[in-house]
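REQUEST ID: PR-0412
SUBMITTED BY: lab tech R.K.
PRIORITY: routine
TASK: structure prediction, single protein chain
INPUT:
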Amino acid sequence: MAVATADETYLAFNGLLPGRSQRMDKIRGIALLHSAAVHLLAGPAANPRRGLRGMRVVLGNPVGANTALGERLIDSMGIDRSEVRGEFLPRNVAVERLLKGEVDAAILIGRPPQEPVVQALHGGARLLDIDGPEIDRLRLYYPLLGRTLIPQGTYPGQHGPVHTIGVDLLLVCRSDLDSKLVYELTRAYFEQSPENVRYETDPQRAPAVVIPLHPGAARYYREREVSR
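STATUS: complete
OUTPUT:
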């Protein structure tokens, strides 16, 4: 089992991942979890008005569901990967280096509010809008990425909404995972701690994965509908 972004999962399932034409069609969906937002942070001394070209940029976490999204965003801005000094760092390390001036900007991805973003803003970093034609170019190739807003007041000193992009996160598994086990895992996820689940997942949207549902998860959703 794993958590993966909807766009990467769709591309993998259909054999459309860059550099890998073979379909990864043994993946099955369990649940749509929630949307993650892209946070573009500029360091206290950075001047984002001139764009990211030539800057030292943290493109994301070296592991996790969203490692490719920062690079895609840079590409959509018409910036060649060689035109930024990009690297991948854990979030806390990225914020630490941002506030020390060792990097100029950082891309952090997750559901707001993110504690590392709070720390960055307290240290003088700024949360920037991601908007304009680069978003349209990005969505042309990756339509499962969508425009989203980080509402006003989500972060300290945020006096207006921040325009950015977001992507759904999916809980996925292998197709040959035992159906009874997946059924019990799905049931446990939704029923053991309903309050936490409502924060993480919209139960009505949960079956709306972009690949086939695992039969065990599909059985749980069918039974839930019947019981209602």
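NOTES: The chain is about 35% helix and 25% strand.
REVIEWED BY: pending
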